[in-house]
Specification:
Cobalt-precorrin-4 Transmethylase, domain 1, alpha/beta, EC 1.3.1.76, 4 domains, 18 helices, binds S-adenosylmethionine, extended, multifunctional enzyme, five-stranded parallel sheet, Rossmann fold
Amino acid sequence: MQYLPIFTKLDNKPVLVVGGGDVALRKCRAFLKARASVTLVAPEFCSELLEHASNNEVILTQAYFDESHLDGKMLVIAATDNESVNNTVFELANKRNVFVNVVDDQPKCTFIFPSIVDRDPITIAISSAGTAPVLARRLREKLETLIPQHIGPLATLVGSFRDNVKARFKHFADRRQFWEGVFDSSVVSKVQVGDTQGATAQLHGMLDAKAEPEGEVYVVGAGPGDPELLTLKALQLMQQADVVVYDYLVSDEIMDLVRRDADLICVGKRLGNHSVKQEDTNQLLVNLARQGKKVCRIKGGDPFIYGRGGEEVQVLAQHDVRYQIVPGITAAAGCSAYAGIPLTHRDHAQAIQFVTGHCKKDGQELDWPSLAKPNQTLAIYMGVLKSPHIQAQLIKYGRDASTPVAIIENGTRKEQRVVRTHLGDLAQQIEQHHIVSPALLIIGEVAALHEQLAWFGSSAQISSFAQPLTDVA
Ligand SMILES: C[S@@+](CC[C@H](N)C(=O)[O-])C[C@H]1O[C@@H](n2cnc3c(N)ncnc32)[C@H](O)[C@@H]1O
């Protein structure tokens, strides 16, 4: 290891920055964040540094650097554009065992500034020891997306309980067990949704050993299948859950991302083959939460669009179970984007209707006169089996048989297939191409834009999709 990562407390400690320009200003700001006592030495200073000095935040010494400026300093940064000055700073500091950093000259650094993920008081530092700062920055960006914002407030809250916990539990092992329980509890999600009061009350309860573990349910939309379309929140909750309740629409790649040791329960629904009744799923969620479990109820697309999310949340609310709802990209949005079909377009469609081809058992008919109106797009979910009926009704009520249609099977997934046809030929094309679930029908002039705008058949996207585009005009 070339550099030992340590976090230093610079509160009021004397540090020196040699230089008076933009680079010196940047380093000076980093030191000020850590509340160091900063002196800068240079023949002249930029206006921002003069401002910091006028606010009594830094001391400016207008002079050429000499060894005496190092007196009493813990750290020094050489941030001038003069190589020989930088070299001198390095040699003199090194001779005195003062930590030194020459900006952009890694061999002349006895300390370095890592890339930082800042969730104060949690701080993550990443360093490539000067070999690949851009790579370190990219790693930092990855971590930024993975580490939730509420981690900082959570650390602050639990920090305020440390003394109480120490007083309550004399043995280290007991304290550790208590904290494990806290981080597995709904204290975390309370902080996550900004309920600091609730989290504080629960911590007090846990400390008095009064609070039962409180379960909760996250109703999470997983999008149409491409795992990269998951929201950050969805991913975080999937990795926080004790139990994941899922159905067939959630892709395998997405299921691979749930917490490794979570219990998985499939309540899969396939048309005509409801393996678990909806009422049983609702009850299952309530029961699991009542056992104190954190339950991730993960659903394809968006939970509130043809996903029965509404029904499940109603039951949770009736039983006073805590829940969070995370929207997902619905199939119409995901499939159309990946097929290069804008759902609205000023020249072709001023409205969009989301429609289900699979109605409730009371046989209630769709409003065909409204659906057959021109200048709108229909995104039809679960429409494959009913396609002969859909086709016949739309034509009967006035939609032209030549209206463009796209059938998108396994949208956004590696196996995505797009069949382009027209309304008069819809059912026959579905049969001919053996379209399987999940598939979405897009009916309207915009579907014809697929030929122009399909993008996964070109450039970088081609490798992500194993199946070639099927175009049947
Ligand atoms: C029960 S609905 C669930 C919809 C989901 N909640 C959503 O917002 O996308 C299932 C239907 O959504 C459509 N669907 C979902 N994912 C799809 C995908 N990746 N490709 C094509 N259609 C999809 C299909 O019409 C499928 O039959």
